[in-house]
Specification:
By secondary structure, the protein is of the alpha+beta class. The chain has a domain at 15-63. It is built from 2 helices and 4 strands; from the N terminus they run E-E-E-H-E-H. The protein has helices spanning 33-38, 66-69, and strands at 2-6, 12-19, 23-28, 45-48. A 4-stranded antiparallel sheet has the order 1-2-3-4. A hairpin with a 5-residue loop joins strand 1 and strand 2 (12-19). The longest helix is centred in the middle third of the chain and has 6 residues, at 33-38. The model has no long low-confidence stretch (mean pLDDT 84).
């Protein structure tokens, strides 16, 4: 799934989200300007599903808020 990763203070990077039965992964586009500047290691993500508390997907990021993303 093509998506964007919103980081805490390191910008927004485009990439591909891959979901397997055991993990959720984000692979940043190698040609993204921030990836070229800071390297893939800063934006790549692998999370075992057993450690995942919640996920939020937004088509319109203007509707996104931190409160929506945090578990209660």
């Amino acid at each position: 799934m093509s998506c964007k990763l919103f980081t805490d203070g390191m910008g927004v990077v485009g990439g591909v989200m891959i979901i397997t039965p055991n993990n959720i992964m984000f692979d940043p586009h190698k040609s993204d300007p921030l990836v070229l500047e800071n390297g893939c290691e800063e934006y790549g993500l692998i999370c075992p599903l057993e450690e995942l508390l919640s996920v939020a997907l937004y088509e319109d990021v203007s509707r996104m808020s931190l409160q929506d993303a945090l578990p209660s």
